[in-house]
Amino acid sequence: MCRCLGIRRSAYYHWLRYPKSESERKNEQIADLIKEIHHLHPDMGYRRIRDELAVNYEMPFNDKRILRICRKIGIQSSIKWRPKSCTKAERNPVYIAKNYLHREFHADRPNEKWLTDVTEFKYYTGLEVHKIYLSAILDLCDRRIVAFKISSRNDNALVMDTFDEAVFSEPDAHPFFIRIEDFNIQAQRFATV
């Protein structure tokens, strides 16, 4: 049997005498404690379970070991925390822009509705990362770009320069000028001079 399976006879006899290693037996004990903790606190992830083992059971272990055991027995936190980021939605916004379009992204004639947004692009010079910003105004009638500007800074001047160029290229236009920001449609009526 050992010859067919490619196993040394000494390894087989060692397995007969010691079927589980010391670390495997210890991991099974830890797994039983983890199941008990998870039953009492299903919201705990592996880090908090490790802290619980260290503080209340006086069994300090590496968090990677606890994570490995949790994955093996299929235990994970029932609560997923939202990632922290630098941009958050306002809970009580002071000003909510009126939705003039009502999701009607079609125009019957040119220069009736303009849409604008700023897009960030990255490029590399060797290992150094640089950013440029493209501000463009799109006519919703024929999907043509009325005006665009490129800048190394994303500021109000970029948007206003793009708008000024659009007004200069289409002096007779009096469109709805719509800015898309974070997928919320905000509209403001502009009267060109």
From TrEMBL:
<comment type="function">
    <text>Involved in the transposition of the insertion sequence.</text>
</comment>
<dbReference type="InterPro" id="IPR012337">
    <property type="entry name" value="RNaseH-like_sf"/>
</dbReference>
<protein>
    <submittedName>
        <fullName>IS3 family transposase</fullName>
    </submittedName>
</protein>
<dbReference type="Pfam" id="PF13276">
    <property type="entry name" value="HTH_21"/>
</dbReference>
<dbReference type="Pfam" id="PF00665">
    <property type="entry name" value="rve"/>
</dbReference>
<dbReference type="GO" id="GO:0015074">
    <property type="term" value="P:DNA integration"/>
</dbReference>
<feature type="domain" description="Integrase catalytic">
    <location>
        <begin position="106"/>
        <end position="193"/>
    </location>
</feature>
<dbReference type="InterPro" id="IPR001584">
    <property type="entry name" value="Integrase_cat-core"/>
</dbReference>
<dbReference type="InterPro" id="IPR025948">
    <property type="entry name" value="HTH-like_dom"/>
</dbReference>
<dbReference type="InterPro" id="IPR050900">
    <property type="entry name" value="Transposase_IS3/IS150/IS904"/>
</dbReference>
